[in-house]
Predict the 3D structure of the following.
Amino acid sequence: MRFSKATLLAVVANTVQAQRPDSTSICDYYTTALLKDNTADNQATLLTLVVNTVVIGNYTQPNVGIMVPGILAPGQFDGTDVDLLPYFNGELASSNRGGDEGVSINFLDGGGAEPLMKNMPANDDSSTQYFLLTHLYQFFGALLGCSMQGMPGFDIYDGEASIYEVHKFMALGPNELGYFITQVGLAAASFGVADSDVQAVGMALNSLFGFRCAPPATVIESQGPQLQAICIEETCPIAENSVCDSYEPIVEPDLVSSTSSISATQTASNSVSSPSTTSAPTGTSGTGSMTPTETSSNAASSSTSIPVAGAGTNGVGLGAVAGGIAAFLLW
Ligand code: HEM
Ligand SMILES: *[C@@H]1O[C@H](CO)[C@@H](O)[C@H](O)[C@H]1NC(C)=O
């Protein structure tokens, strides 16, 4: 699938008009719209649905007819081929574990796509996959303004504070970040999030993480201002008020020899191909959507159908996301 800069923020234009009041965050709005009760559990479920879709592509039924390839699938951005899988399956020594260069880690070690299709982060609670996915739910929950985060059912983000430090050995450029953000937008849109909200999220992500040498910014209140740039390659646009001296020289990740990464690679490719080559997970096909209440109570442990507000009467989608993001644009 081809994406371009021009389509990044407008790629999904078929959604309903936003009805979200400015005072309601994107997270709160779409939790209520899709899962009915605005509880910590349901906010965690919303983030699970969206992040899992970002990672493996659309897997829930029904959907509003938007195909989401997911960040593990190869694609294009701005006419350039993008393939993020090698950063996740151990093929590249691109993970920061505190040394002077990156190390190889297979982040698909908790069952790969299979548990994600059941609305879970992993098949266990100790794999690197488990920590990556749960940290993504938490981090994006904060970005989207989830008001119940911190209550039992949805923990506050407790991963690395500096998103630059997390990604620095990946040496990512604008096409890689653009592809990732496009998948976030498509995933949101696939659940019916309003176009205006999708665009607000995309713009906020781009301004927070898309400029090299960006000055410290606060994403997680308790973590304070941190270096956040993910796009750090030369070709990334430079930030206003740039602080290039605070960033280290770019270290390109090494390709790990195929012999030592056979299992990681096989796991990844098997996992990644499954969403597109198999039918929907058990329980998601057919016409009988679960009710919102059933969905919220079951989503953490089983595959579910979620009631998606399409171009229909509810007039909702992931649009609520913009509320949380708007707060970010103020710093
Ligand atoms: C909007 C853009 C992005 C955001 C907000 C984001 C956010 C995050 C967060 C919160 C974590 C977890 C950190 C932790 O567990 O301490 C993470 C990890 C990771 N991200 Fe991103 N990310 C983005 C883009 C990307 C892109 C474009 C790639 C491309 C390969 C990527 C690859 C990874 C990998 C491989 C990890 C695991 C790193 C590790 O545990 O060492 N991310 N990201
Ligand atoms: C993903 O969405 C597309 C477009 O609606 C649909 O044709 C496809 O069946 C979906 N894939 C899954 C696994 O649900």
In short: Confidence is low (pLDDT under 50) at residues 4-18, 259-331. The first strand starts at residue 75 and ends at 77. Residues 84, 87-88, 95-96, 107, 131-132, 135-136, 139, 159-160, 163, 166-167, 170, 172, 176-177, 180-181, 205, 209, 230 surround protoporphyrin IX containing FE (ligand 1) (CB under 6 Å). The radius of gyration is 19 Å.
